[in-house]
Amino acid sequence: QVQLVESGGGLVQTGASLRLSCAASERTFGSATMGWFRQASGKEREFVAAITWAGGSTDYADSVKGRFTISRDNAKNTGYLQMNSLKPEDTAVYYCAAAFGRWTAHKATDEYRYWGQGTQVTVSS
Fold first, then answer.
1. pLDDT per residue over 89-98, tens digit each?
2. Cβ proximity of 4 and 58 under 8 Å
3. Beta strands in the chain (DSSP E)
């Protein structure tokens, strides 16, 4: 099974940037759709961004479009989420996930078989 580990979260001020990393345990990650989701305290997990296995297609939630950039380096078995212009409403636990299903379902949490443990992002105002 693919194991995923997120890192790079932290406590920052409004307007700051963070880069999250998602390290996969094996090279089969390179054939998977990678997604980022977040879950704020007391709220449901929501879609943030996704990228196809080759990186040719990406998608973002409207709330982060223009501020966040998803990318991946399959040679390093690692995915990334660059977060700029952070806002307090971005505060959440961020999870990376891998799916071996269809790209058309990339916004659905149940499409993803493998999940990381999450990394906390807190943005103060």
1. 999 999 999 9
2. no
3. 4-7, 10-13, 18-24, 33-39, 46-51, 58-60, 68-73, 78-83, 92-99, 114-115, 119-124
